[in-house]
Each structure stands twice: as C-alpha cells, then as structure tokens.
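Render this sequence as a predicted structure.
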Amino acid sequence: MSRTPADEGGGPRALPPVRGHAALAHHIAAGLVADEFDLSYFQDKPLDHGCFSPLSMLWPHEPDWPGAIVPLQVGVLEFPIPSARRALRLQQHCLGHALPLAYLAHLNHQLAGIDTLPGTYPFTLARSVKGYRLNKFLHRLTDPAWRVKFRAAQEALFDEAQLTADERTLVRDLDWRGMIHYGVSFFMLEKLGAVVGVSNLHIYAAMRGQTLAEFQQTRNAPGALYSVAGTDAAPAQQSWMNAPVTR
C-alpha cells in the first residue's frame, strides 16, 4: 500500500506516493502495545508535510522513492506532551526488537492458546485490516444521508463503497456471525442492527441459530432488549418481540 501527499489547503504536493510496509508496521504496533505504549492506527489517511518535507531531503524521489516506510505519528501540539525520555523509549522499542522467540512470545502473549478454542475469532490487527472496508461502510450508517441511501438503494451504495461480492452477501443476508468471522467489529453490527430494525439480542440469537424467544429463555432478564437506535430507528423496532430473526 502506498500513501499519497495530503491536501493541506493548497493542493497536494507534487511528490510521488511513498510505499508502506504493512507487515513491519503490524510487528512494530503489536510490540509497542505489548510494551504498554498506547497506539491508534490509520489505514487510509494521506501523509502530510510532517512526513514528506524531511523525507524529500533524505531520499531521492524522481520518479519514485527508493524504499518503504512505516509512518509513526507522535502528538506534540496539546499539553501535556510526551517527554524526551518517553520519545527515547519509543525509539529504543522500535529499533531494539528483532524476531527472537522470547520476544515473539511476549508480543503474542494475549493470544496464547487461542487456537485451542474452536469458533474463536479474535479481533486482531490483521483481521481489522481484512474487514476495514466493510467496517468503514457500516460505520457510515451514523450519517443520516448514508442511512437514507442504504434503505433506498442498497446495491448502488455497495457499488459506491466498492464492496466485494462476499462483503455484499454478508450485508444482504444479515449474516451476523459471518460478519464477525470476516473481521467486522461488533460495534458496527450494532449500527447495522439499528438501521434494519433489530436489537442486540436479535443479533445474539441469530448467531446461536435461535429465535429471539429461545435466546431470551437463557437470560436472567429475558425481557430486556437493547439497541443503539435513536430517533431515526427503523419502523420494525416498534415491534421487536415479533420481528423475525435472520440466520
């Protein structure tokens, strides 16, 4: 994947896109989190002058850059800002770890033994990358105009978002379990449920292959339903108890 220069007000700079290195970025990110650095990740954000200005002085770039990079952004505009000692620790952690087995075990300790639990699909960084396009599509259901398009012309919206055939099928069929397996965050399933008119419990029941009534019999508070839907809720939510459960 490559990153293009951002438009920062006067149009993008006349510089070629710079290549990234996804595998190394995943390794660095997992290692930093394991070492208790708090990170956020971006997947389709263009890079600004903070990257391209120094890079254009360090590397030749006509017609292309000679290598790949892993962008790492440190916020220094709002106080309290990271100390110099913290920045040094960040550098040491980025440069000091190769691939020794002991470090790999430390890096992956939260997932140790996960492969022994059938039907477990942890939301890892790799899985989030796989499901990113579909997660982004579903998150946009928080936009009222996107919801209107979704309800009126779903297929056209699939085209606009460039969803794959598999991703379109998952949404059309309301295949809640399939979406989780694919890499969709449950918080995005909530948003889809709110738009199509089902509660969280409808989704849980469908994942277990049960009707809502069957699922409620397994709960200590069988009558409690929950949804993130608000004033723009689908009409079907007015009769949740009688709504059909898909899959």
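Summary. DSSP finds 13 helices and three strands in the chain. The chain has two domains: 2-112, 125-242.
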